[in-house]
Amino acid sequence: MGKTKLFWRTDMQIRAPEVRLIGEDGKQEGIVQITDALTRAKGAGLTLVEISGSATPPVAKIVDFGKFRYQEEKKLRKQAKGAKGGELKEVRFSPFIAQGDYETRLKRVKEFLAEKNKVKVVVVFLGRHMGSKPFGYKLIGRILGDLGEGVTTDMEPKFLGRHLITIISPLVARGKPKENAKTKNQETVNE
Q1: d(Cα 61, Cα 75) in Å, to the nearest integer?
Q2: Contact 161/133 with Cβ under 8 angstroms?
Q3: pLDDT tens across 90-141, in order?
Q4: How far is CA 52 from CA 32, 39, 56, 63, in A?
Q5: CA distance readout (Å), 48 to 5, 8, 16
Q6: What is the rounded CA–CA span in Å between residue 132 and residue 160?
Q7: Which domains does the chain show, CATH number per domain?
Q8: pTM listed for this prediction
Q9: Side-chain-side CA neighbours of residue 139 (13 Å)
Q10: pLDDT digits (tens, 9 = 90+) for 160-170
Q11: Is 176 left (phi over 0), alpha (psi -120 to 50) or beta?
Q12: How many of the other CB atoms lie within 10 Å of CB of 37?
């Protein structure tokens, strides 16, 4: 994923004859001539930044440019981090996997699910393993059993060539159901 470069027009790069000015305190100053806005920014030792160039007239704000850029990049990083969840991750197993390898891969599946990613569980059959297909289904059943009720199966196990594949995803955490006030009162009466 490439890094997005942010760009704002500042000071003399702003071409509009007038702007809707937001002062350094964040309050709207109204529509002013660009020369007046530049003079105010320079007098305060700050920078005039075009916030919205598509508005008529453009919106400009008087800011400390270093702080402003940092805050905008921080917002962008937060948005990118929030959008990350939901990727499809893959973890491969063998139908006759050793216990230590099984536990390591199961731990990885749990980490992916904790990050709100879907997981494609693949059981790879090599050579003579193809005659032992029931072991693959047992393994997937064991994996689902070890993961517990926190997952849902998006795609039931099925063979695609030499791979037995299933896709699982984490259950969406919902708020606790509110207790019915009537039931709560009955419990109090019964005590």
Answers
A1: 18
A2: no
A3: 999 998 899 999 999 999 999 988 888 889 999 999 888 778 888 889 999 9
A4: 15, 20, 9, 14
A5: 19, 10, 13
A6: 15
A7: 11-82 (3.10.20.80), 88-170 (3.30.110.10)
A8: 0.48
A9: 28
A10: 888 999 999 88
A11: beta
A12: 25
Q: Take residue 13 and report the two structure tokens written for it.
A: 């790069």
Tell me the three-class secondary structure of the chain, residue by residue: CCCCCCCCCEHHHCCCCEEEEECCCCCEEEEEEHHHHHHHHHHCCCEEEEEECCCCCCEEEEECHHHHHHHHHHHHHHHHHHHHCCCEEEEEECCCCCHHHHHHHHHHHHHHHHCCCEEEEEEECCHHHHHHHHHHHHHHHHHHHHHHHHEEEEEEEEEECCEEEEEEEECCCCCCCCCCHHHHHHHHHHC
- Residue 162 phi/psi, 5-degree rounding, is -95, 10
Q: Is the peptide bond before 57 cis (omega within 30 degrees of 0)?
A: yes
